[in-house]
Write the structure tokens for this entry.
Amino acid sequence: MAVLVLATGVAMVVTQKLRREGTVIALVSGKQQRGCPGGDRVPVSFVLTRDDEIDVRIVRLDDETLVRTLARDRELEGERRHCFRWDGKTNGGSQAAPGTYRLQVSLDRADRVATAGQPIRLEAPSRTGAEQ
């Protein structure tokens, strides 16, 4: 029983700390945004609310399984939009299945992982006339 009470107290302290720190990523988008270059299939962008060293990943919606790492150990400035493009492929180089994914950002100094609530839809690749 004492362990349960201690664990609950620790959880409350951690929760309060995270609330004071506030949001670490905001305005996540899986669509083309002004100021973000286009060209690849799925543009993803977000506003980082503080300077940090980050990892940017695409994960499956249902179980957050890693699909693709878009950036690793990248130092980014806060208070501005950061843009990445996902070519729809997995880390292994194969085409990811059409479906719903999420953007996940790991912040090193904040010691937090933020998974965007907004889904990213990956459509089936369109066929050109030569492929049909």
Remarks:
- The radius of gyration is 18 Å.
